[in-house]
Amino acid sequence: MLMSGADYRESLRRFAPRVYLNGAAVDAVADEPLLAPGVNAVALTYDYALREDLAPLMRVGDVNRMLAVPRSNDDLLNKLEAVRLVCQQTGCAQRYLVGDAFSAIASATHDMEGDYHERFKNYLKQVHDEDLAVGIAMTDGKGDRSLRPHAQANRDAYVRIAERRKDGIVLRGAKAIITGAPYMHHLLIMPCRNMIEADRDYAVCCAVPIDAQGLTLVTRPAGRPGEAAAKFSGRYGQSTAVAILEDVFVPWERVFLAGEWQHCAAITYTYATHHRHTCIAARAGFGDLLIGAGALMTEANGIEVDEAPNLREAMIDLIKIVEGFYACGVAASVYGSRDAAGVVVPDTVFANIGKLLLATQIYDLHRLAHHVSGGLVVALPGPGEDHNPATAGRLSDLLAARSDIPYEKRIAVARLVEDLTASSQGGWYSVISLHGGGSPEAMKMEIWRNYPVGSKVDLVERLLERGVLADEVRKITKNRQPGRCCVQGCMVPLPDPKVIALQKKKA
Amino acid sequence: MLMSGADYRESLRRFAPRVYLNGAAVDAVADEPLLAPGVNAVALTYDYALREDLAPLMRVGDVNRMLAVPRSNDDLLNKLEAVRLVCQQTGCAQRYLVGDAFSAIASATHDMEGDYHERFKNYLKQVHDEDLAVGIAMTDGKGDRSLRPHAQANRDAYVRIAERRKDGIVLRGAKAIITGAPYMHHLLIMPCRNMIEADRDYAVCCAVPIDAQGLTLVTRPAGRPGEAAAKFSGRYGQSTAVAILEDVFVPWERVFLAGEWQHCAAITYTYATHHRHTCIAARAGFGDLLIGAGALMTEANGIEVDEAPNLREAMIDLIKIVEGFYACGVAASVYGSRDAAGVVVPDTVFANIGKLLLATQIYDLHRLAHHVSGGLVVALPGPGEDHNPATAGRLSDLLAARSDIPYEKRIAVARLVEDLTASSQGGWYSVISLHGGGSPEAMKMEIWRNYPVGSKVDLVERLLERGVLADEVRKITKNRQPGRCCVQGCMVPLPDPKVIALQKKKA
Amino acid sequence: MLMSGADYRESLRRFAPRVYLNGAAVDAVADEPLLAPGVNAVALTYDYALREDLAPLMRVGDVNRMLAVPRSNDDLLNKLEAVRLVCQQTGCAQRYLVGDAFSAIASATHDMEGDYHERFKNYLKQVHDEDLAVGIAMTDGKGDRSLRPHAQANRDAYVRIAERRKDGIVLRGAKAIITGAPYMHHLLIMPCRNMIEADRDYAVCCAVPIDAQGLTLVTRPAGRPGEAAAKFSGRYGQSTAVAILEDVFVPWERVFLAGEWQHCAAITYTYATHHRHTCIAARAGFGDLLIGAGALMTEANGIEVDEAPNLREAMIDLIKIVEGFYACGVAASVYGSRDAAGVVVPDTVFANIGKLLLATQIYDLHRLAHHVSGGLVVALPGPGEDHNPATAGRLSDLLAARSDIPYEKRIAVARLVEDLTASSQGGWYSVISLHGGGSPEAMKMEIWRNYPVGSKVDLVERLLERGVLADEVRKITKNRQPGRCCVQGCMVPLPDPKVIALQKKKA
Amino acid sequence: MLMSGADYRESLRRFAPRVYLNGAAVDAVADEPLLAPGVNAVALTYDYALREDLAPLMRVGDVNRMLAVPRSNDDLLNKLEAVRLVCQQTGCAQRYLVGDAFSAIASATHDMEGDYHERFKNYLKQVHDEDLAVGIAMTDGKGDRSLRPHAQANRDAYVRIAERRKDGIVLRGAKAIITGAPYMHHLLIMPCRNMIEADRDYAVCCAVPIDAQGLTLVTRPAGRPGEAAAKFSGRYGQSTAVAILEDVFVPWERVFLAGEWQHCAAITYTYATHHRHTCIAARAGFGDLLIGAGALMTEANGIEVDEAPNLREAMIDLIKIVEGFYACGVAASVYGSRDAAGVVVPDTVFANIGKLLLATQIYDLHRLAHHVSGGLVVALPGPGEDHNPATAGRLSDLLAARSDIPYEKRIAVARLVEDLTASSQGGWYSVISLHGGGSPEAMKMEIWRNYPVGSKVDLVERLLERGVLADEVRKITKNRQPGRCCVQGCMVPLPDPKVIALQKKKA
Fold first, then answer.
1. What stretches of B349-422 adopt beta strand conformation (E)?
2. C422 partner at 20 to 30 Å CA-CA among A328, A367, D213, D412?
3. Tell me, what DSSP letter sits at residue A23?
4. Running DSSP on this structure, what letter comes out for residue A332?
5. How many other CB atoms are there within 10 angstroms of residue B121's CB atom?
6. Which residue of A has its CA nearest to B476?
7. Gap from B467 CA to chain C (nearest CA, Å)
8. Using the beta-carbon criterion (under 8 Å), do B330 and A327 form an inter-chain contact?
9. What residues contact D36, with CB distance under 8 A and at least 6 apart?
10. Cβ neighbours around D113 below 10 Å, total
């Protein structure tokens, strides 16, 4: 049953998580002003799903799109659109991460022995039925980066199964950078890397309620609540938290992996692929805000973009970057493929290229937004001055740009640009775009690992052979990956994908 | 009826075009060695269409995909795949341009009065039935760039209707940069810009056989025929020609525009959109060759890519660029929309972004291919040395990189890389990628003209209003384009969202 | 007489400026916590000039380098080094701007009739003798960007001479983005653009004490004073202010331009050249902080840079960018030329290229600093948590990276990186780097205006003539600028090559 | 005694090298048309040194600047100017490489035991006295890249001392990519990497006459001799050769290293630093040609650059890139330091950054040159058509752009742009810019190895300590390089700051 935003706020009161913020305990998450922008952002995902006009995007049957596991290429495309839509409104809607995680767990448990897959399906049904918000707890403390989990001096550097009991498991350790943790209903504990047998106590995936015994969250404010100049992030923002687990008990019915170290890589990488796909949409929504704000700022500065070629060029560059990486998300949707569990997984190469492009180009977006906005965005008087009788009138008079655009409007837009790109919020977005969902190097490795270089080498070798070279060049490359069916590959209805066909033909 | 490559070669003999190449007249195009690489490339589009395994890509019913007008989003996607496939083999298959032109003329004539549309459909049927190769003659001489066609000192600077006769029209002028002209069956004369009423004699679109009376082609060799080091472009290449029209008569049944200056912009821009979409695929095919050749070269140099992080990085960058702009082609296909004539037109913004990316990044592709290949690609002895008894043995001995890869293989791949990226052929590809289908500035203007900036400004204004600002900011932007329904920021109300339509259609 | 930092603080008490900050009046600038980081930064320029070990860099005779007019190419080079040195310590030392302005005014007044030059020399002597800090008030309110000063609806949109009296002039209007205004002793009012005769009331340059009657400053905090996480900008920062001038009287002896509109362009452009040269040094100093902080962060994360090629690559890129634009400052110093007033002006082309590079690449510096630092820099618990007994111990335990580097160190460096690049301070630095000293477009125009394109065209024409072409190509370009004597392509005859001159001077 | 270009040509006849070109033996290098562009380019360095107006640049006393060892920072700066000057005329003057090698050998032999240094000084005197052209034979065959010289299966994969005799040594092996080899008087054999003791037979540096017994050169044509469209490279070009050494005897007086493997690294790296410094100048000269040709082409196309903002932007970018990397050469000159042998070595960091920038940005230069030139540069009829009576007149009529610029001029400039950037010559320049003097990775390693990262870390640590952190952070980095005295962050104590020293020296 779908909740409204108001229902969601109310539902938070039914949990009593142990949350510290700026060193002090939070009494009630739903009432905490420093978390309000985060709660607002999540609430919007509830309200939008209730809107009939948005239903095709925001719902899959009775389920909120944010929670759904994609079962078709259209699902992937609509998920992309839905996430862009909500992030246009709130910067980052946070709640979609769990959909990515569910997809990965659905696929991984399908391949595992035992009743993990059944348990997971039951849990998924519960989340769907209760329309929960679930946070993803993935990044471990990690300790010494050169050592594997089991080899760390501090045994709790990675979250581990400290005890296996008849009725469940007991966890210890810490997870960091958990998006939106305090105002979630549950946390999903997931492994953050591949493991070996010695790491088996660290191979764990399960769900815990946010107020589980032994769970402590240390968080930071969501956005810039209470700051008068925070035009956007005073209203919408994102909190991240560190979760400390001190003997947290999890009953078996919510455990989806407990020791099967061989499956950690699959969960981690599959989650990464899904998540990078949605990240693309999220940041495209943020890019939409920059495009709109940039255009509005030039107007407020009294400049016709078409008469200032360098500003028009910058606006076009903004668009080129945002739609350029979004296109990778679209292509990843179109070329996504269905796995054994019936989950349609975005094409890994396109998804990683899109995320890689946004990760590095977010800085260019900031540059371009600043370019079109002019230097005043960081130099105009602050909101404290707005009602100072000694200065307000004169400032309004002297700093207006065009007679038909009041100074108040100009300064409002300037503060918005500053908020989005030159404040702590802007800095946060840049770092989280760069490193969220894995660092650029991780994407590069995934692209390399998944790209059918071998088929391209074959192509060139055949050309050389067929052409002038005859027998000079033949099969000199080794270790080539078999050609993937994908990338350059074939649309509906191609019952028999091209590259594979080609490959077979030779065999 | 589909021809084979051999049929196509034979069919060329039925035409007797007036062609000059390097200052001398060409006797028979089909036998001219300097044009052979171009003929080879076109021939492949015929042979591939006959292959059953490639039928889903290469045919639309009984028609070669290169000649087909897209009627669905899947058609656009399959066209993209098909063009990439043939260009992977030949660098540039040349024959697909006419499909782009047909789409534009189908749309434009549909909106015109008179029987232009009927005439065009008849002509299209003929081309399909006879499986012709048709070249696009678009770029005029242009003369003084600051003057319109009718205002030029030289009346023939743009191709014009010199005489209107009862049975047809008579043309004078010149067209430049005609891809593959000598080995086409027909040329399609098209306007290359928007026009005003005074330009009406220059508003002309029609088809002429390649050996029409009064038509002279001045061309250059296709690729690098006959050069021993030309591993690729000795076999496949592209010829461009200037066409001089001196009183060329065209009967009315092959005239699709004659004076209706208002429709020139539509033909020009619509063709540009279709063509930029296919350019993306063409250059992705070329990129596949670079990826394969680069990987092969590192191998021939005796280097494991995974042990040389800087080379792996360069390989990944190659992939990122090629698949990054290809993704824009995919997105343009998915978000393409059907017009009144039933033609599905690629999304203009995505198509132009993709073409813009490839236009500027082709230089990066060269850089990266050189990076992974090493400096020897331009410094190894030439083919003249291969059989010099005084040096060949010793060179083969001293310049081998690894014992299991003979020097002959290494030098073969090195020459291929040189051919593709550091020869006149490589230079040609870079310039034609940059300027073909319009220069970067043209793409930027199209992006700007078509992007729904207004809807993004609305988005931001609503945020400011709803948020802190209340009535401070309201509707200060003017001249906003109505929000496009689709992807980018489709705001409520969603009149008929394409994505959803897509979904329904399939359901 | 050189003051110490302590002297400078004390000297501020001798002025009583009217300053508003966050809407409230500031009682005593020297005691205002929100301005303290700015005062600290300026104070350091005083203390450093007193250090004997730094004397060759920080002093020119008895004068602080920040205030000196360069008289030799070595002066330019040492100024560059000195500014980099102080900005390494404080981010931006602010006080050097006036040296740039003095150079411009020295040159401009030298060419003017009347006793302006004498007055200026007297004023310069006073500033040197009293070792003052002087702020630059240049950017006007500007009003409608499409209109000249005299044509604005609001007569005060640009600062103007409202009245000419026997003993001086009376000013009205506003200046924005005045660096460090509240804690300066004087402000130097300067024109910000070229003017025409009708603008003559707006052509004004003069000095006013910071507490002049009728002068009001509206300012923002310097840096992030009082924020516990502000590792750097809690100590050093920069305040900018808007100055409102309401009938400010300036006696003639401090007026250096009053109506001579023809000289506005010279003052503006010459100031820009000097200032862009010093900006290069300032931002190189900031870059040094990023390089150091980035290296420290990788270490604190427990990573050996040499074992992580992608991090090493990013570190090298950081260095490449910082030293790359710094090199342009060095070249501008070496190729600077002495003008009629004896001022040595940096080479315009190199100075503008350097500033242009830093303006756009500051965003890359942020990206690279984030790349090497990892995502935790924005996700670690805030300083409020440091002493929370409920969490501090456990966090310190779980989030330490390497046993020999305490968590406290790691978090300290992370907060420094966040402060420098992902906080409001980081945002401020990016915008001010992009737009300070003129926007990128302004630099591009200066490069274009000053580059000897004509001499390069001559070079190519001579090659074509001498070579194969004989008389085909001859003198087809017009409006060519005369070849600059110096570096770039100075062809024979070399009238007075600078390099050679340099050589002779030393011989 | 300085020779003229004519003297140099004549002098080549006194040598009888064994040269193969395109598989055939070359009778007389001085008369070989396929080598003429190379000979022309070297000849110009002789003629220019005789011009009195260029003497300050082109001569050091009685010695051609190309052959001189820099003894002051001014020498470095003038060398930079001189190399740029000659490369502006000829693309690449080739003869300056030996000056770079002499500097490295002068420094290395100074540190070696025995009479190597004396021998070298004698040899240097001979080269100066006879004004020779000397080629650099450095790049070995290399064989398996993963093995050291002594471990190769093929013992001759690196040039080695096959025999030590009383009167000299005997060499075997091959050297590749030798610039200008056939038309040099001598070759200088140099090691191309660091070595270990087991490699001592491969540690060899010596000079051999070009017609030494046992020496065979396999070369390629210089430029594009004899091609009518080769506006530039038909006249000036560069040949590279592979040298095969089969028992070449070298008398002791011309041996400068024979087994002292410890010194190989010094020779290799020092040569690299000098050579990268001069490469910067060489490519800046090439850049000047592109700037001039680009401006000329826009003019020939009938376009006013100032009315086409996108072309002006591209022209400015061309300038920005060329002068941007040139500035690094200037800075490397200014911050160069004198070593024990009295040689002034360019600053390694700046020299490597400059070379790295040009290596990767040469591709951007091509892109920009194509951008301003338009697509016709590769599509205009070839020179064969110029005198075809059937087409020439009509083409000239129809393809002229502006009435005052004949078609012949337009096409001449178009062919020049094609020659410089889109022909085999253009490709050659791009690859050789990327890999010549070491690949980008080599430069990056040198930057990293030489940059005083440690001093930047110190800077940041002191800030943290002095500021808020007190004793939290202290000396956590290890392996830090001692701070370089100079530019980058010279911190107190300044032991002997170079800049200041410079200043004092002059005072």
1. none
2. A328
3. T
4. H
5. 14
6. A405
7. 21
8. yes
9. D222, D225
10. 8
* Cβ distance of B319 and A447 shorter than 8 Å: yes
Q: Which of A164, A186, A173 is CA-nearest to residue A252?
A: A164
- d(CA C395, CA C383) in angstroms, rounded, equals 12
Contacts of A332 in chain B (CB under 8 A): 327
* ipTM of this complex prediction, to 2 decimal places: 0.92
A460 contacts B296? CB cut-off 8 A: yes
Q: How far is residue C229's CA from residue D468's CA, in Å, rounded to a whole number?
A: 10
Note the pTM of the prediction, 2 decimals.
Answer: 0.94
CA-to-CA dists, residue A186 to A41, A132, C55, angstroms: 17, 8, 63
Angle subtended by helix axes D36-50 and D73-90, to nearest 10: 130
Which residues, other chains included, contact B120 with Cβ-Cβ below 8 Å and sequence gap of 6+? B105, B106, B109, B256
Nearest Cα neighbor of A502 from A438, A446, A449, A459 is A459
Task: State whether residue D180 sits within 8 Å of chain B by CB.
Answer: no
Whether residue D356 lies within 8 A of chain C, CB to CB, comes out as: yes
Does the CB of D389 have a partner CB in chain B at under 8 Å? no
Contact yes or no for A296 and B476 at CB 8 A? yes
- Considering only CB atoms, B141 lies closest to which of D364, D399, D426, namely D399
Please identify which residue in the block is written with the tokens 């396929």: D34
CA dist C286 to A154, C92, C97, C305, Å?
37, 8, 16, 22
- Helices vs. strands in chain D: H and E counts, helices first: 15, 15
Residues 441-480 of B with CB under 8 A from D: 441, 444
Q: Which residues of A touch D317 (CB under 8 A)?
A: none
For the beta carbon of residue A272, count every other beta carbon within 10 angstroms: 24
**Tens digit of pLDDT per residue, chain D (507 long)?**
899 999 999 999 999 999 999 999 999 999 999 999 999 999 999 999 999 999 999 999 999 999 999 999 999 999 999 999 999 999 998 999 999 999 999 999 999 999 999 999 999 999 999 999 999 999 999 998 889 999 999 999 999 999 999 999 999 999 999 999 999 999 999 999 999 999 999 999 999 999 999 999 999 999 999 999 998 999 999 999 999 999 999 999 999 999 999 999 999 999 999 999 999 999 999 999 999 999 999 989 988 898 999 999 999 999 999 999 999 999 999 999 999 999 999 999 999 999 999 999 999 999 999 999 999 888 888 899 999 999 999 999 888 888 788 888 889 999 999 999 999 999 999 999 999 999 999 999 999 999 999 999 999 988 887 543 333 333 333 333 333 223 333 222 222 223 333 333 333
Q: Looking at the complex, does the CB of residue C308 fall below 8 Å from at least one CB of chain D?
A: no
B313 near C CB under 8 A: yes
- Three-state SS at C221: coil
Rounded-to-integer distance, Cα B340 and Cα C110, Å: 71
Quick check: B53 and A413 CB within 8 A?
no
The one-character DSSP state at D54 is: G
* Contact between residue D231 and residue D288 where contact means Cβ atoms under 8 Å apart: no
Cα D4 from Cα D42, distance rounded (Å): 11
Chains meeting D at 3+ CB pairs closer than 8 A?
A: A, B, C
B175 backbone dihedrals φ, ψ, rounded to 5°: -125, 140
C357 contact residues in D (CB cutoff 8 A)? 320, 324
Question: Is D61 touching A (CB cutoff 8 A)?
Answer: no
Residue in chain A closest to B471 (alpha carbons) equals A409
- How is residue C361 written in tokens? 């690449």
Three-state secondary-structure class, residue D445: helix
Q: Does B11 touch chain A (CB under 8 A)?
A: no
> Is C313 an 8 Å CB contact of chain A?
no
Judged by a CB distance cut-off of 8 A, whether residue B350 touches chain A is yes
Please name the residue of chain D whose CA is at the shortest distance from the CA of residue C227.
D468
Helix (H, G, I), strand (E, B) or coil at C168: strand
Q: Is the dihedral of CA B327, A296, C421, C84 positive or negative?
A: positive
